[in-house]
Design a protein that fits this description.
The protein has 315 residues and is α/β, with parallel strands linked by helices. It has 12 helices and 10 strands. An 8-stranded mixed β-sheet has the order 1-2-5-6-7-8-9-10, sandwiched between helices. It has a two-stranded parallel ribbon with strand order 3-4. Helix 5 packs parallel to helix 6. The radius of gyration is 18 Å and the shape is globular.
């Protein structure tokens, strides 16, 4: 039995990689340790419902702030991912269990107990399942809708690259309010950073969502500080806009362990501000570009702003 608290067992494919020293974080990237009553209450609801969160599994730096406010990103389909992206701290390997048919109901129950106005649901990659978990996503969306009809739902999905036709269509048909799929990095870094994925497949996935449902908001994000240059980041912005992506997130990559992809550099707040300005100029409805930006950080507030921006754009 693997112990996912031990790095060598959590990431067996990284165990023999050379160490990448972790540079000291600058002042603008440091955050306080998670404390507070709200944090403890959110943690208890997650444990009582036997739910996994990407906040914990991926080591998100914003977990203290978000959980204190009762916000958590649910991670469905287990805690072991079939991919081995070099930036990611989620455990990798062959998932030890089948999908839990009761999980959608438990997620919906937690959403109701937390009283969420907006919820983000993500997952590990499950290349071992024929539809990649598409039906499970759809069931989770429907379960939340049934218990919390006023809650808006944002999903952050895998790429479904190895799935039977129709997987994406099933998820879109369940009508999430926001469909998010992250490109993660610039195309030139995919072989090293995201070896199990394909840049243009992910881009096409986002474009296909809009073709299936033009009213659905689409969202995607990248990390910077992995070794990319400004020109490549701007090209990703252009590619996203060509695929009609509404919302872009850009955040600083933080190295989880010595065995993960190295931090090339810490991008300054001034550089992030320039990326935000450029993205707005390219026509995104919503942009979040700061060192601590993550896919689901302030997602509810950003969704409300995105709705207003669309209404304004439509006159």
């Amino acid at each position: 039995m693997r112990d996912l608290k031990i790095p060598e067992q959590r990431h067996p494919e990284k165990a023999k990689r050379p160490d990448n020293p972790q540079p000291k974080k600058p002042a603008w990237i440091r955050v306080k340790a998670p404390v507070g009553q709200g944090y403890q209450e959110t943690r208890k609801i997650m444990r009582d419902n036997k739910l996994v969160t990407v906040c914990e599994e991926a080591g998100c730096p914003n977990v203290g702030e978000c959980w204190n406010q009762g916000h958590a990103t649910m991670m469905i389909m287990g805690e072991v991912c079939t991919r081995a992206c070099t930036f990611c701290n989620i455990a990798t390997g062959k998932p030890p269990e089948d999908l839990d048919v009761f999980e959608p109901g438990r997620v919906a129950d937690a959403v109701k107990k937390l009283g969420l106005n907006h919820v983000v649901v993500t997952s590990v990659d499950r290349d071992d399942i024929e539809d990649g978990g598409a039906a499970h996503f759809a069931q989770t969306i429907r379960a939340i809708r049934k218990q919390s009809p006023s809650t808006t739902i944002e999903i952050l999905t895998p790429d479904f690259i190895r799935c039977a036709p129709g997987a994406l269509e099933e998820v879109v048909a369940a009508k999430p309010d926001v469909f998010n799929h992250n490109l993660e990095t610039v195309p030139g870094l995919y072989p090293e950073v995201r070896p199990g994925a394909r840049y243009f497949h992910s881009l096409r996935l986002l474009q296909r969502v809009k073709e299936l449902d033009p009213t659905m908001f689409t969202k995607s994000g990248i990390m910077v500080g992995l070794g990319e240059d400004r020109q490549a980041v701007h090209q990703v912005m252009d590619d996203m806009r060509a695929a009609n992506v509404d919302f872009i997130t850009i955040g600083q990559y933080l190295q989880p362990t010595l065995k993960h992809h190295r931090v090339d550099r810490f991008v300054t707040p001034k550089e992030f501000a320039s990326y935000e300005k450029a993205a707005k100029g390219k026509g995104f409805l919503m942009v979040s570009a700061t060192p601590l930006t993550r896919s689901s950080y302030h997602a509810g507030d950003d969704f409300a702003k995105m709705q207003k921006a669309r209404q304004a754009a439509q006159g």
